[in-house]
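User: For a reading group we're discussing how well predicted structures match intuition. Take Cobalamin biosynthesis protein CobD. Before you show the prediction, I'll give you the sequence so everyone sees exactly what went in.
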Amino acid sequence: MDNTAAGILVGALIDGAVADPRSWHPVAGFGTAASALERRVYAPSRLRGTAFAALCVGAAAGAGVVLGRFGVLGTAAATWIALGGTSLTAVGEAMADALESGDVEAARALVPSLCGRDPDALDEAGICRAAVESIAENTSDAAVAPLLAAAVGGAPGVLAYRAINTLDAMVGYRTERYREFGWASARLDDAANYLPARLTGVLVAVCGGGRPAVRAWRNDADRHPSPNAGVAEASFAGALGVRLGGETAYRGYVEQRPVLGEGADPGVADLRAAVRLSRRVQIAATVTAAVLAFSRGRSGRRACA
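Assistant: Thanks. Here is the predicted 3D structure of Cobalamin biosynthesis protein CobD, as structure tokens, for the group to look at:
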């Protein structure tokens, strides 16, 4: 089997077995280093922000080049570092357990592990909606996109992708501080997730969403302020038969999001269904990425023959 394809499969298996460590995760280390660099170079300038993003992403890709020299094990390590799908669904399950037992405070405490919403502004219904939307978006960002990046770019590609996505989570906001400095990071993230988000929509339909997922994607995705999150969230909404969107409170500001899908607001049962759907999509994405990597490797060997 092609080294990249094998590395993707091994990395996905490791993520499924051990998920993200609670401490000393390489992505957390990258975030710490990026924060230190931001403090040194920050200015409300797109030029400064572009240089910041280029340095960070270039460093991550360079680390991937080093890992890639170790063949299957190096690609597996890079893939595992970039994946977050198992942790995503574990948090979703824990949140559903807490809500089912009536412990809204415990569920609220888990919100920051999924998204940047203001937990204090969320009741049980708001927690469910935030969780389903975040599981949908992060199924693309934390699972499908890294796998596709690994298939196309190997270890350098998958670590560059994870750097881009992490920078967007750090500085890609429309706040006064980051509107200019975070512009390049946000645009890079939009570009890096364009194809993965649409693959996510396809896989949601294939993995159980069917025509309702496609219909919600077609009718509602473009209403979302993100060109990529809208695809994932709308397809999940259609697949689950729920309505997403509405008033969305972050720390310091509130957004009015468009309605995606049809039906009732999501409840605990829908949150559990979102977790199950995410897992199916992640498995399908792993197989798709491995097949793509194998096909690319085989085509490359033929071209060299």
